Amino acid sequence: MRKHQSAVKAEEDFCCTICYTSLAEDEILPLGLCDHIFHKECLQDYIEDMINQFKLNILCAHHAQCGKDLSYKDISACISKDKF
Ligand SMILES: [Zn+2]
Ligand SMILES: [Zn+2]
Predict the structure, then answer these.
(1) At a CB cut-off of 8 Å and minimum separation 6, what does 66 contact?
(2) How many angstroms separate the CA atoms of 5 and 69, rounded?
(3) CATH (residue range 5-83)
(4) Domain boundaries of the chain, sorted by first residue
(5) What is the pLDDT of the chain when averaged over all its residues?
């Protein structure tokens, strides 16, 4: 089941690398340290997942090509403080 494969290709650079759909329409959040852009909802899930795994350094979700840490500001912009 590989729908969308060719349709998304042209917009690759503007896709969220967490959910692989276009960043055009939803609420997005650029990271402070590396300028990668993700859906805010996707980042929320991603960060919560990392916290659940007790990861201390949460890397940019574009880690295949990036590897920068998320700043505290980015993290706190995504999730409420009582979880962090
Ligand atoms: Zn997304
Ligand atoms: Zn990045």
Answers:
(1) 34, 36, 59, 60
(2) 30
(3) 3.30.40.10
(4) 5-83
(5) 81
CA of 54 to the centre of ligand 1 (A): 22
Q: In which band, very low, low, confident or very high, does the pLDDT at 11 lie, cut at 50, 70 and 90?
A: very low
Whether the Cβ atoms of residue 51 and residue 83 lie closer than 8 Å to each other: yes
What separation in Å is there between the alpha carbon of 56 and the centre of ligand 1? 22
Q: What is the DSSP letter of 24?
A: S
Q: What is the pLDDT of residue 7?
A: 46
Separation of alpha carbons 81 and 70, rounded Å: 15
Residue 5 to residue 66: CA distance in whole angstroms = 23
> b/e map of 6-43 (b: 16 or more CB within 10 Å)?
eeeeeeeeebbbbbeeebeeeebbebeebebbbbebbb
Ligand nearest to the CA of 64: 2
Q: For residue 30, which ligand has an atom nearest its CA? A: 2
